[in-house]
Amino acid sequence: MTVRSFRNLACLAVVTAFLVSCSSTHRLYMESLRLAFRSGPEKSLADIQQSKIDLMQLELGDRNPAFLALAYLENDQHKWVSADHAVFVFHHDKLVQTSGFAKDVLSTSHLDTNPLVDIASANTTTWQYTIDIANHEYGLPVESTFKKDGTVTKSFYGQTFTLDKWVETVRTEPSTPYWDSAYDWENSYLVEPVSGNVFYSEQTASPFTEAMVITYVSRIARHIKNSGGL
């Protein structure tokens, strides 16, 4: 068995824990997930449109882009898994939990006040919450401010979109005596103005996790199809 095959099988085992459904639906989903990871790191628009499950492209740090599959939806949280069985949980496109890393984000509080729930209706909005970071910090207070920063054009699959740009300025305050400074960084979200869907995002979940670039490829593919594209 190859390393890739082993990792894919491990990923399927992890996803099993997330799925609650009848046996026939479960089998169909697991087969779709296996096929999604089989086709390799590059996927065409046709590949994305033909996939039976939603896919996301993620670039983590300086690693090559990888595809994640949507494994589970619950309480407005989308759980995505990678072929090497890492798990990323998003709440309205904000990364709020991870699994598979040394300093995982274990939880994010006050999701009910996440501005991304209805970002299109806001001009500027502030969100205060806490995060728990494995092996490091628990109850770390965070304050983020979302502000619209005009529009940008960006191309996906040969088509150019005009998207609203939202910038989230994030600041963490020291919560233990050995911290001598706060941490500040910015996340960005490119939103399709008609649907309100985030197409692309650059995020860092905590001061101790790597930056990531997220492209919602299935979401984009559906938009292209519904708009009369390829």
TrEMBL record:
Q: Please give one Pfam family short name.
A: YjbF
Instruction: Report the protein name in the record.
Output: Group 4 capsule polysaccharide lipoprotein gfcB, YjbF
Q: Which Gene3D superfamilies match?
A: YmcC-like (2.40.360.10)
Taxonomically, which superkingdom?
Answer: Bacteria
Q: Which residues form a coiled coil?
A: none
Q: Keywords assigned by UniProt?
A: Lipoprotein
SUPFAM superfamilies tied to this protein? YmcC-like (SSF159270)
Q: Which organism is it from?
A: Marisediminitalea aggregata
